[in-house]
Amino acid sequence: MSRRLHCRSVLTPEGWLEETALVLDDAGMIRSLAPGPARYGDERLAGAVIPGMPNLHSHGFQRLVAGLGGQRARGDSFWSWRDAMYRVAARVGPEDLQACMAGLYLELLRGGYTSNAEFHYLHHDPAGAAYDDPAELAARVSAAAGAVGVGLTLLPVLYCRSGFGAEGVTEGQRRFHNTPERYAELLSRCRALTGADRLQRTGVAPHSLRAVNGDDLAALLTLRDAGEPVHIHVAEQPAEVAACLQHLGARPTAWLLENAPVDEHWCLVHATHLDEQELADGAGSGAVAGLCPTTEADLGDGVFRATAWLERGGRFGVGSDSNLRVDAAEELRSLEFSQRLRDGARNLLAPEGGGNGRALWEAAAEGGAQALGQPVGRLAPGRRADLLVLDQDHPMLAGLEGDDLLHAFVFAGDRDMIGGAWVAGEQRLDRGRHPTGDAIASAYHRVLRALRT
Ligand code: NGQ
Ligand code: ZN
User: Whose CA is nearest to atom 3 of ligand 1?
Assistant: First the structure.
């Protein structure tokens, strides 16, 4: 049996096509693109259809601290934010986490993200003791993604130490801590969980070179199955680069490129502070730079060298990270704006003659798909039908077509321009409404009220 989603206008690798049907198989994968008018029985997508955005980096529970902590105190920084975040992390129970994650994934879907990579490092109970099931909390993440019906790349995180040269973790990090041996159990449970849902898969995530030393990393990589994505935080803060230079004799990205098999399965999250050599070697490795522009701005990380990265052929995608903001277009806009503010010029991340909004959306969708290791990111045969329909009745899109319309969505956009979202060919959002959205929202509100203090 095949189903047809008939699009008035759809963005494909061949450009915008008018009056074209996406022909799907039972699993919601695109079999072919069929030009021509709608047929009887087609599902009709009346707006401009674009690929859904994969979110390549999320810490869902951090939604609980989004927008808090605005009283200025001496020395406010990334590190003081982290302490405050740890205090909330210490209080989240399994039920809380599941409600928070489902509510968040629904918000992210409304913001254009049809799949998420969850960089998941809350593993143990608040005292740091293992749950009976080492994947108790990972299972909550998987269940939440299942309830919303979005794609998930579950990334159980290995976290062994509090910093370069340290032996163990601090009290605030007890819930995160595993040895590589304990991690092996968690990883195989995660594979079992995600193996039961065709929209889900597992990857591995050494937290950072701060939290995982060279031996820990080597042990983790022996546990990885061929082809599983590898995500790691790298070079986010200047203090991290300095400490790495001191302990390992190299900058973090350079050390990784030299000592780990970094290739197109890897996602280098942030990669904010890169020198010329790291830019060239990092871009050449085929790895995806995992950019989280609104979180990076919020935490005062620095400005990613996006123009230079793209000139060297580097790939990138975007992530909602701390989930301060939950809007794919806003991440892309913030990325472009950071370069404009630095360089005093406009339309910096598009190729000559190309539409800026379209260039950003297409590159991030493709890079995000690569980082998640999921067949999404473009509307083409062999890919999954994860897509958004932009509402051309929206006043700010009225009269626009093609690249101009996508540019207006990215730069003047709003989530209410998203008229619908489909995942694996199933409609999950209709003008912001989700089939089970009310129940998800009320559990979400309950946990936000209880824990946001
Ligand atoms: C995280 N978040 O793992 O949630 C980190 C903070 C750390 C970001 N780096 C903790 N954005 O890096 O040690
Ligand atoms: Zn992160």
Answer: 207
CATH architecture of 53-372: Alpha-Beta Barrel (3.20)
Q: What share of the chain is helix, strand, coil (3-state, %, to 5)?
A: 40, 20, 40
The radius of gyration computed from the CA coordinates of the chain, to the nearest angstrom, equals 21
> Ligand 1 atom closest to Cα of 62?
4
Bridge-based pairing of strands 387-390 and 418-423 is antiparallel
**Ligand that lies nearest to the alpha carbon of residue 157, given by its number in the listed order:** 1
pLDDT tens readout for residues 423-450: 999 999 999 999 999 999 999 999 999 9
Protein residue closest via CA to atom 10 of ligand 1: 82
- pTM to 2 decimal places: 0.98
CATH code of the domain made up of 3-51+378-437: 2.30.40.10
**Does residue 207 carry a catalytic annotation?**
no
59 lines ligand 1 (CB under 6 A): yes
Domain ranges within the chain, ordered by starting residue: 3-51+378-437, 53-372
Contact 62/233 with Cβ under 8 angstroms? no
CA distance 102 to 91: 18
Distance in Å, CA 240 to ligand 1 centroid? 12
